[in-house]
Amino acid sequence: MSVIHIGGFRRLCGRIPVQGSKNGVLPLMAASVLSEETTVLTNVPAIQDVFCMMGILDFMGSSCLLENGELTISPRDMGRTDLPACRVKQMRSSVILLGALLGRFGQASTCYPGGCSIGKRPVDYHICALRQLGAEIEEEGGCIRAKAVRLSGTEIRLPYPSVGATENVLLASVLAEGTTVIRGAAREPEIEELCLFLRTMGAGIEGEGTDRITVRGRKRLHGCRYRTVGDRIVAGTYLIAAMAGRGDVELTGVKPAHLESVFHMLRKAGAAVSPGEDRIRIRMEGRPRPLWAETGPYPGFPTDLQSPLMALLCCGEGESRIRETVFEGRYGTALELGRLGADISVAGEEAVIRGIPILPGGTAAARDLRGGAALVTAGLQSEGETIITDCFHIERGYEDICRDLRLAGADIRWLERKAKEKKE
Ligand code: UD1
């Protein structure tokens, strides 16, 4: 059990350093197997999803060592190309290893990642795109088996700018023969980071950050050293937490350019947001103004911040509306916020949140990673105590949310904490 206790509202003031990006580093870890040489990643967050990916790489014979935020991956002796089922079920994004393994070894197999608490999350775009590059893929008994004598560049049009599918195609195509053009590519900062990293390994890529990325296949890639970017979703979570604490907080170690749509939304809700070069200051007085918000692919408002925003608006000065267009299952958190006294009704893609001055507090369960962070946000604007159970979800993506928010004066602590699993 992992349980968090929040003592109630406190005005939040202080400075919080932001950890390296979860969604940024996982594809870099997958990419590191494209070369036989050692890769060193720095600013790597010590979170469960990173430990899980290390476990997968270790299982396949690639040695991983994480010390003080520096992760060394040596994939020279990799002997296996099958992903361990128990890990794949824990972390769906392991599916991007398919592209990397096909690129380096011409084969890969994994069990199908299956359903998930935030929505269906199929991998059909991934499979269709890898087939277009020349992979033969069989789907049988919940398993995906992929083989390719040689991957060949081609033009791929994604039906939706899927982050994971764009990553998979990039990883498969950097060692393919000829040129690959990805149309309808995702434009998220994590895609730009992956392209920058692959270029540092010697790949030929241009166009990242737009919906058309061109990859010129290379014969081989080399190892490198690379610093993981600050986590824009953790930063967004703490900006929203600072607003819940009607505070004055500075975040450091982030790229403010990655958060434009978030700044826009938080300013509409009444916050004063001042971005610097690698830092952001946010100040908030009084209750948030009500909002109409819709999630969408980058540069739209991130679906990963929808639940924390919803939690903030529970104390808005009126009625807010949110439309979730990316993951249909995220509204499970609305029910949990209800247990903490929030007044939310959900119909299809839309949620209506009727703000009240302060939440009473109570007990609720984290249903997913960002939903857990939303319950923390609710606890920060409650008059009573809040207890959040099932916080292992939060530990998948936040190094230590209690440590970080205490730096700004929050009354928050772990009652129980799942022991760090590392690679067991
Ligand atoms: C990544 C992020 C996640 C974020 C999401 C959207 C990682 C590890 N996770 O997830 O935090 O919320 O981007 O910004 O980086 N889809 C299909 N078929 C597919 C692939 C996707 O239908 O083959 C659908 C999904 O069900 C979803 C939408 O496309 O409705 C977006 O998914 P995608 O962008 O692929 O998200 P992930 O890469 O899984």
| Terminal-residue CA separation | 18 Å
Low-confidence stretches: none
Which structural class matches the secondary elements? alpha+beta
Helix content: 25-40%
Describe this structure in words.
The structure is a single chain. The protein is an alpha+beta fold and 424 residues long. The chain folds into 2 domains: 204 residues, UDP-n-acetylglucosamine1-carboxyvinyl-transferase, Chain (Alpha-beta prism); 206 residues, Alpha-beta prism (UDP-n-acetylglucosamine1-carboxyvinyl-transferase, Chain). Helices cover 30% and strands 24% of the residues. The chain has 14 helices and 23 strands. A 4-stranded mixed sheet has the order 21-22-1-23. It has a 4-stranded mixed sheet with strand order 2-14-16-15, with helices on one face. The chain has a 4-stranded mixed sheet with strand order 4-5-3-13, with helices on one face. Helix 1 packs parallel to helix 7 and helix 10 runs parallel beside helix 12. It starts with a strand and ends in an 8-residue tail after the last strand. The relative contact order is 0.16. The mean pLDDT is 95. Uridine-diphosphate-N-acetylglucosamine binds next to helix 1, helix 5 and helix 6.
